[in-house]
Amino acid sequence: MDEHTFLTNRERAVDYLNSLDKVFVNDQFLNWDPENRIKVRIISARAYHSLFMHNMCIRPTEEELESFGTPDFTIYNAGKFPCNRYTHYMTSSTSVDINLGRREMVILGTQYAGEMKKGLFGVMHYLMPKRRILSLHSGCNMGRDGDVALFFGLSGTGKTTLSTDHNRLLIGDDEHCWSDNGVSNIEGGCYAKCIDLSREKEPDIWNAIKFGTSAGERCL
């Protein structure tokens, strides 16, 4: 995709968001290491997408929010509105675009909330190595004596299950940074699969599913 196509999709998304009576804006952080966190702004058409990122990213305090300033990265989530399939490089009504130069992401034609999470993780893979920090697709927990374990694997291979060990402290279940300061969770929430979930096997995840939890791709 070239710059012109990105800007065409960006304009389409922004025009759609501007046409709505209400949009939802999240100003949040990525990375619990205060020296290396980034500021993100997510602008969404749907309350569900805003709640999802409210759960997944790190929430600023009231004082941090007042001095938040210009974000390091912005997402325009107009997923309810399709892209123009006749635009150059488009092959369907769905387009998920990241422009690292502009530090922006545009979502059109898909309401899968995970696009925002995965997109920001990709951005961290780009930004963190520039600071000599390793970004990791991993689960992480810590023993009572401060020993840290990392669990690597693709989605659905058991990182969350292994991380939520009742004998150890959970650091995070999916995305981490490893710097000279130690290992830090990129996110503020967990992104756990619910298939075959039981209280006996995964009590932490079971107990976390309550009012305020965002559950996607579920059939009720």
TrEMBL record:
Q: Which pathway does the protein contribute to?
A: Carbohydrate biosynthesis; gluconeogenesis
Q: Name one GO biological process term.
A: gluconeogenesis
Record InterPro entries: PEP_carboxykinase_ATP, PEP_carboxykinase_C, PEP_carboxykinase_N, PEPCK_ATP_CS
Catalytic activity reported = oxaloacetate + ATP = phosphoenolpyruvate + ADP + CO2
What are the entry keywords? ATP-binding, Cytoplasm, Decarboxylase, Gluconeogenesis, Lyase, Nucleotide-binding
Q: What is its EC number?
A: 4.1.1.49
Would you tell me the Gene Ontology cellular component terms? cytosol
Carries keyword Lyase? Answer: yes
Extract one GO molecular function annotation from the record. phosphoenolpyruvate carboxykinase (ATP) activity
Which Pfam families does this UniProt record tie to the protein?
Answer: PEPCK_ATP
Q: Which family does it belong to?
A: Belongs to the phosphoenolpyruvate carboxykinase (ATP) family.
State what protein this is by name: phosphoenolpyruvate carboxykinase (ATP)
According to its UniProt entry, this protein's organism is Triticum turgidum subsp. durum (Durum wheat)
